[in-house]
Amino acid sequence: MNNHGERIYLRFLNVEDAPALLDLQLRNRAVFEEISASERSETFYTLEGQVALLEGWNKAREEGKRYSFGIFLKHAHELIGEISLFELELDSISKWIVGYVLDQARNGKGYMSEALRLVLNFAVNDAGIKRVEAGALPDNAGSIRVLRKAGFQETDRQNIKIKGIWKEHVMFAVDLQ
Question: In whole angstroms, what is the distance from residue 119 CA to residue 3 CA?
């Protein structure tokens, strides 16, 4: 895998990254909770909760069901985000989804576009994934711009539950070659 971009690099997250991931989650809690479909209890926001999360992600990677990468600044080796490919099975249909978060202080600088390019290269060249889907809230112009820039096309709209409330998402997909 070529995991180096111009200004960032990706690597699989591991248990040793738990303190940095916890810091990222805590600093961006309000924003991340507004876009995350996963339930986040108070335990999630503890070191033990992040260790458990990373252990689960690593087990899923061993099973070929999830690939979770930290997004690191090259010059500082600082964790600034996370991007994951994960397999989701709905109505007996398997699909690969990409999800990502970026430190809000780093928005608008092109880091996520760089990370998404690297992850899509990994998907097709290392994991044999042929199609990737993603969703974004309609008012999340930055995320929609990142997806379109990477070649994703709008497919439809779906309701996804976030913090117990169903919210409309614009759904996208890209076919990889």
Answer: 8
Q: CA nearest 84: which of 45, 40, 47, 133?
A: 133
Residues 6 or more apart in contact with residue 105 via CB below 8 angstroms: none
Answer whether 35's CB lies under 8 Å from 29's CB. Answer: no
Strand order in the sheet with 8-12: 8-12, 66-73, 79-90, 93-102, 131-136, 165-175, 153-162
Q: Provide the β-strand partners of residue 136.
A: 170
The reported pTM is: 0.92
**Structure-token pair, residue 132:** 């990737």
Confidence (pLDDT) at 63: 95
Q: What is the DSSP letter of 68?
A: E
* Average pLDDT of the residues in 133-138: 92
Closest CA to 69 of 13, 121, 116: 13
Paired tokens of 163: 């913090």
In whole angstroms, give the CA distance from residue 166 to residue 119: 28
Instruction: Give the chain's length.
Output: 177
